[in-house]
Write a structure and sequence with these properties.
two-stranded antiparallel sheet, 11 helices, mitochondrion, Mitochondrial adenine nucleotide transporter ADNT1, mitochondrion inner membrane, transmembrane
Length: 354
């Protein structure tokens, strides 16, 4: 009995020592390997859930935006948000509103996971470099530093999942009347790879990367900076118990999404049109001359801009902006708030950048 008591006491002491060691490592900013891996997994899960929830909530508007971006101006089918949604409902039914959403989620879940996690790591790395400069030892993240971290995160996430975005665009545009049907994500990927080559999977990548810098960068910069300002200024009684309410955070996310998408939208239109190059099975896709007399061909991003503006006017760069704006406001807001709520449930720090 005495030996058992001794063993129990030794186990208790060992456990206390281990807990003390973990606490010491935490204070010193060092995480045990297993704890660090668990934290990474939690962050990735939170980011993936945030992306899936936010995109599914606005899937009908996402599809309508793409259809508006690529439709032929001389055979208008979708003319505005309400009319466009009604037309899709009437011609394709309820499922038509969510066509391509499975592919979209298959892309956005890993994209969102990588994006949020990359932002956390990039913000920490950029802040560390900034603090190495004389006089900046105690500096905090500024809006400009957040913009840089967001840009890095956007480029990494976009590049990692771009082929999924490319085939998602084609799955979204095709209809039952298309001569050939992509049966799903992997069928579309394999078909494009076989018939058009590996480079086709990255058509429109350059305008996407250029567009993602202001878009994702501004999303994070505006959201985080607004939250910081509200926490410090505490205007209108929006701060309760040193925390922002869900409604206030949703408003911050909406403002961030509106600013980012307005700046980057023309590049999104050009990216989508470049993705359609070489595919003749899409319904109502705009052609090179806008009249159906020439195949859709662009030699590059600049050429796509030039032909679009020349044949359709500057306003064509903002086709689909209205449904996109209606989509972006709740989408970005839901993504940010869902991310923070899931991390809170999983026991990870609430702030995106800590």
């Amino acid at each position: 009995m005495a030996s058992e008591d001794v063993k129990t006491s030794e186990a208790a002491v060992s456990r206390i020592v281990n807990l003390a060691e973990e606490a010491k490592l935490a204070r010193e900013g060092v995480k045990a390997p297993s704890h660090a891996l668990l934290s990474v997994c939690k962050s990735l899960v939170a980011g993936g859930v945030a992306g899936g929830v936010s995109r599914t909530a606005v899937a009908p508007l996402e599809r309508l935006k793409i259809l508006l971006q690529v439709q032929n101006p001389h055979t208008i089918k979708y003319n505005g948000t309400i009319q466009g949604l009604k037309y899709i409902w009437k011609s394709e039914g309820f499922r038509g509103l969510f066509k391509g959403n499975g592919t979209n989620c298959a892309r956005i879940v890993p994209n969102s996971a990588v994006k949020f996690y990359s932002y956390e790591q990039a913000s920490k790395g950029i802040l560390w470099l900034y603090r190495q400069q004389p006089g900046n030892e105690n500096a905090e993240l500024t809006p400009l530093l957040r913009l840089g971290a967001g840009a890095c995160a956007g480029i990494i996430a976009m590049s990692a999942t771009y082929p999924m975005d490319m085939v998602r665009g084609r799955l979204t545009v095709q209809t039952e009347k298309s001569p050939r049907q992509y049966r799903g994500i992997f069928h579309a990927l394999s078909t494009v790879l076989r018939e058009e080559g590996a480079r086709a999977l990255y058509k429109g990548w350059l305008p996407s990367v250029i567009g993602v810098i202001p878009y994702v960068g501004l999303n994070f910069a505006v959201y985080e900076s607004l939250k910081d300002w509200l926490m410090k200024a505490k205007p209108f009684g929006l701060v309760e118990d040193s925390e922002l309410g869900v409604t206030t955070r949703l408003a911050c996310g909406a403002a961030a999404g509106t600013v980012g998408q307005t700046v980057a939208y023309p590049l999104d239109v050009i990216r989508r049109r470049m993705q359609m190059v070489g595919w003749k099975d899409a319904a109502s896709v705009v052609t090179g001359d806008g009249r159906g007399k020439a195949p859709l061909e662009y030699t590059g991003m600049v050429d796509a801009f030039r032909k679009t503006v020349r044949h359709e006017g500057f306003g064509a760069l903002y086709k689909g902006l209205v449904p996109n704006s209606v989509k972006v406001v709740p989408s970005i807001a839901i993504a940010f708030v869902t991310y923070e709520m899931v991390k809170d449930i999983l026991g990870v720090e609430m702030r995106i950048s800590d």
